[in-house]
């Protein structure tokens, strides 16, 4: 059984979120939640919220089955790019330099099967 949770428009670049996601992919949910809760990274808070939402979705969808937290694994997790805010800053000789403030979409899929 699978469940998915998506968080959109996170005000952080996808590259910085992917650093944490690479450590979580394929691991147990209980271990992943513990890792995220004590991590100092800014992205850990958003990933933890999305992961707990995915677990809650799995619990709600599996009404007939007994699912324990120990048997749930992170099947897929990825961060995609989202629209970025275009800003500018003063540069030398009266010019402007462009600043792109990136944002991302986070998707986490949890499953009871470890594969």
Descriptive account of the structure:
By secondary structure, this protein is an alpha+beta fold. The chain has one domain (2-111): Ribosomal protein L22/L17 (Ribosomal Protein L22, Chain A, Alpha-Beta Complex). 34% of the residues lie in helices and 37% in strands. The protein contains three helices and three strands, in the order E-H-H-H-E-E. The protein has helices spanning 14-24, 29-37, 43-61; strands at 2-10, 73-90, 96-111. The protein has a three-stranded antiparallel beta sheet with strand order 1-3-2. Strand 2 (73-90) and strand 3 (96-111) form a beta hairpin. Helix 2 runs antiparallel to helix 3. The longest helix has 19 residues, at 43-61. The mean pLDDT is 94.
Strand proportion: 35-45%
The main sheet comes to: 3 strands, antiparallel
Task: Report the uncertain regions.
Answer: none
Strand and helix order: EHHHEE
Return Rg in Å: 18 Å
**CATH top level label:** Alpha Beta
Structural class: alpha+beta
User: Would you report the number of β strands?
Assistant: 3
| Count of discrete alpha- or pi-helical segments spanning 4 or more residues | 3
- Which architecture would the CATH scheme give at its second level? Alpha-Beta Complex
- CATH topology annotation: Ribosomal Protein L22, Chain A
Number of domains: 1
> How far is the first residue's CA from the last residue's CA?
12 Å
């Amino acid at each position: 059984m699978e469940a998915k949770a998506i968080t959109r428009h996170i005000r952080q670049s996808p590259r910085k979120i992917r650093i944490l996601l690479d450590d979580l992919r394929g691991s147990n949910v209980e271990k992943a939640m513990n890792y995220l809760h004590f991590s100092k990274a800014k992205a850990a808070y958003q990933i933890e919220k999305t992961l707990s939402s995915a677990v809650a979705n799995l619990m709600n969808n599996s009404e007939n089955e007994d699912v324990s937290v120990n048997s749930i694994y992170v099947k897929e997790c990825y961060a995609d790019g989202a629209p970025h805010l275009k800003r500018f800053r003063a540069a030398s000789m009266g010019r402007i330099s462009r600043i792109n403030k990136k944002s991302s979409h986070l998707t986490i899929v949890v499953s009871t099967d470890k594969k």
